[in-house]
Design goal:
There is one protein chain. The protein is mainly alpha-helical. It folds into two domains: about 70 residues, Arc Repressor Mutant, subunit A; about 140 residues, Up-down Bundle (Four Helix Bundle (Hemerythrin (Met), subunit A)), CATH 1.20.120. It contains ten helices and two strands, in the order αααββααααααα. GO terms for molecular function: DNA binding; DNA-binding transcription factor activity. It holds the Pfam family FCD.
Length: about 240
Amino acid sequence: MTERATAYRRDGLHGQLVHDLGRQIVTGELPVGAPLPTEEQLGKVYGSGRSAVREATKVLVAKGLVVSKRKVGTIVQPETAWSLLDPDVLAWRYENDPTALHLDHLAEMRVVLEPEAARLAARTKDRTVVRAIQESYHRMEETLDDPDAFIVHDLAFHRAVVEAGGNDLLVHLHSVMEVALAAARQVHTRNVRRNKRTLPAHRAVLDAIVAKDADQASALMREVVTGAAHDIRRDRRTR
C-alpha cells in the first residue's frame, strides 16, 4: 500500500513555529524577501529556546519557503521556490481563503487525474476493492444532512476510486491533492441542497465502475469534477 502524504506534526513549540511561520509566508503576511524574525524575537514570543527555532527553520528551508544566507539571515523565498506538493504548503494555501487562480489549478489537477483513475478502477480485476467505493457512497447517502460528515465521506469516495485502480503513483498524487481538496471543501461544500443534487452523479460513477464500463466511468467522473469546479467559481462570484 502506498504511503499517504502527511502533514508536519504540530506538537510542541517546534511544530507550532513551523505552522505559524509557514502560514504567514504562504498567505503573504511575511512577504517575499522579508527576513524571518530573529531567534531572540521568536524566543520571546513563543517562550522557546534557540534549538526549537533552528529546527523549525530547517523544516521551512526543506519546504522551499525560506533560504538562509550568511550575514543576511533567513529570507522568505518566492513562490516559484516552494515545494507546492508538500502537504503543509498545500494546506496553508487552501485553508486561508485561496485565490480563484489557486482553486482553478486544483480543479485542473482533478480533471487530469480523477477521470483516468475511474477508468482504471472500472478495469480492475480485483473486484473486492470496489466495496470501499460502495461503502463510501452509502455513507454519503446517510450523511446528506450533515455537511461535515458528508465532506469526509465524499473525500473517501474519491480516494477509494483512485485506490481501486491500483496505481501507486496516482494514489500518492491524489493523497497530496486531497490535503488541498479537504481545505477547499470545508469552505465550499457546506450546501446541503447542492450535496443532494450531486449525489446521483457519484452513483452513476459507481454504477459504471461496477459494470466495468471504463469509458463511461471516466466520462462521468469528469462531469463530477468539472461540476464541482463550476460550483466553486459560482460561490466566489456571489460572495
